[in-house]
Write a structure and sequence with these properties.
The structure is a single chain. This protein is α/β, with parallel strands linked by helices. The protein has one domain. The strands form three sheets. The protein has a four-stranded mixed β-sheet. It has a three-stranded antiparallel β-sheet with strand order 4-5-9, with helices on one face. Strands 3-6 form a two-stranded antiparallel sheet. Strand 1, helix 1 and strand 2 form a beta-alpha-beta unit.
Length: 208
């Protein structure tokens, strides 16, 4: 197995991103790699990689973008939501099934934010899954306040990233760009979230 190469690059160029995307042993950052990708300017390039069936990091790229855009839908100001709309437009040209499904999930998130017709209890759980979990995280959703007029859904455990869990298991040997090897033993890294993020009321289809 190849040693992992940690670039420690928080402002990667197109050339660097291509090198990273097509080499599984290369990391942009040793701890918070996903955050490096959370920039609107990278959307066209990252969606291009994700749509390439030979890109080994396609699923991980979509997961990182899903997490980025999820919070823009949930908590972003209206100008931030334009970033989500841009991603949807870019993904309309995709041919791979994983990007097409990813785009549909972003579209559903935008519809949930805008509101519209009331949704019933049966529809609330899939909506909560789109808004709180998406494609990148694992958690349990449960109704915690349920009566004829209102219901509330919460994350019953702090969610963690599927792709980080897959990447971070056992011990691996890393080499940073200075050439200094370092032995690391990785463990699951949980992402903290507010436990209650969505409340649906009878006659109100918007997240609280």
């Amino acid at each position: 197995m190849k040693d992992e190469i940690v670039l420690n690059d928080w402002n990667p160029s197109e050339q660097t991103l291509r090198y990273w995307a097509y080499n599984e042993h290369v990391l942009l950052d040793g701890q918070e790699e996903d955050l490096v990708l959370h920039q609107e300017a990278y959307l066209p390039l990252l969606l291009e990689f994700a749509d390439d069936p030979v890109c080994p990091k396609a699923h991980g790229i979509l997961a990182a973008l899903d997490y980025f855009l999820m919070y823009l839908v949930l908590r972003g100001a209206d100008p931030h939501v334009e970033t989500v709309k841009k991603a949807v437009v870019l993904a309309k040209h995709a041919k791979s099934s994983i990007v097409i499904e990813w785009r549909k999930r972003q579209e559903r998130g935008l519809r949930h934010r805008l509101g519209g017709a009331p949704i019933d209890r049966e529809q609330a759980m899939p909506a909560a899954h789109d808004l709180l979990i998406g494609s990148c995280r694992v958690a349990t959703l449960a109704f915690v306040d349920d009566n004829p007029l209102t219901w509330e859904i919460e994350l019953s455990v702090p969610p963690f990233s599927v792709h980080r869990q897959q990447r971070c298991h056992g011990a691996s040997r890393r080499v940073d760009m200075s050439g200094k090897p370092q032995q690391t033993t990785a463990s699951r890294k949980e992402i903290s979230d507010p436990r209650r993020l969505i409340q649906r009321k009878c006659g109100d289809a918007c997240a609280a």
